[in-house]
Design the sequence.
């Protein structure tokens, strides 16, 4: 399994439970919705979900006004109309509200990803952050490109939801004390 040589990065990559709760231990968390709706899947998503097109929700999590995590959650369209239909109503609330608050879900192992400087995920991060900066019209969304990310698949009523999270480098230097479910 891919691991960083830096223990603080591994602590974030392999921390179970709610990422939002871990971030909240360090300050105010805001969810900025970049895009949601039908989307073509990335190759890794296609492999995990066994389909080519799905419902996607792309967000940036800000910690104390600073871009901290870029997240993309995808589920096949039939699952979006079934087990994962509540994704549509999340708005600016964190996905953790669906995943960790009183629900019984299965989760695959967390898979770490070392991101390529010019790779597709990094391009997506640049594009998503640029869109938000244009809409916000402010420099509060200045960011550092993520180097590490992780993914896992949640299962509800045999329907998958793949979650990918990419971390700003400064986030991986924060302590990851166990908080939340």
Sequence:
């Amino acid at each position: 399994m891919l691991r960083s040589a830096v223990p603080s990065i591994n602590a974030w990559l392999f921390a179970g439970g709610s990422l939002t709760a871990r971030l909240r231990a360090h300050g105010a968390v805001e969810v900025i919705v970049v895009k949601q709706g039908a989307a073509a899947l990335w190759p890794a998503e296609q492999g995990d979900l066994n389909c080519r097109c799905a419902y996607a929700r792309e967000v940036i999590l800000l910690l104390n006004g600073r871009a901290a995590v870029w997240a993309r959650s995808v589920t096949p369209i039939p699952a979006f109309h079934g087990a994962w239909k509540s994704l549509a109503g999340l708005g600016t609330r964190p996905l953790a509200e669906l995943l960790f608050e009183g629900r019984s879900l299965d989760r695959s192992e967390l898979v770490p990803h070392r991101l390529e400087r010019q790779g597709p995920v990094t391009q997506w991060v640049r594009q998503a952050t640029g869109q938000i900066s244009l809409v916000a019209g402010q420099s509060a969304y200045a960011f550092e490109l993520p180097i590490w990310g992780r993914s896992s698949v949640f299962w509800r009523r045999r329907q998958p939801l793949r979650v990918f999270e990419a971390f700003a480098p400064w986030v991986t230097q924060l302590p990851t004390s166990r908080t939340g479910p």
